[in-house]
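User: Predict the structure for this protein chain, please.
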Amino acid sequence: MGNKPTQKVLVVDDEEPILELLKYNLEKQGYDVRTAADGQQAVDQAKKFHPDLVLLDIMMPKMDGVEACRQIRAIPELINTYIVFLTARAEEYSEVAAFDVGADDYILKPIKPRALMSRISALFRRDSKKKNTSSQIKIGDLVIDRTSYTIQIKGKEVSLPKKEFELLFFLAQNPNKVFSRDDLLQNIWGSDVYVLARTVDVHIRKVREKIGDDYITTVKGVGYKFNLS
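Assistant: Here is the predicted structure, written as structure tokens:
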């Protein structure tokens, strides 16, 4: 049968049949699975379980999925956790809100188990490939370390969520080269994940808020580049 994945997955939905369906299919693939029925349970479980991936609904009691994602993203131990929204909310503003709080993917219901398992496997495969790339970049006062997923500016550590970190690391690996939004979507999110182009702008804005405006330049009408002084 070959090697099975050992990653841990937290499934969050207020509909019991969906929890059972996802748990069954994930465990069949070898994942270690826990479930939660609302956003507050999701945050509590995430703190204890330390999942590699969270599958998260939006419309739930006690705390919605967007707020749950925001709180999970704020947990330092879960900086590398993937968060994938699995929801019936098809409106663009819901998708933008999800990516704005740090989602890695946004998948619409109804659930197609085989397609979902394939997308989850693709996420973990990309993660495995990235771990084999160069581990540290030093540019002036900025140090970006992929091994620990940490950033230091003038000796002070700055925390970035996974996708913001990967975006910064990718641009810093290719200094002074301009990348379009489509280029960045392809390299950071991958072709198997549908993400709005605006998501890149949101992530760039958040990176700038944390490291300053000097490192990443907007090239009007084209995209973004990392400045090598």
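DSSP finds eight helices and twelve strands in the chain.
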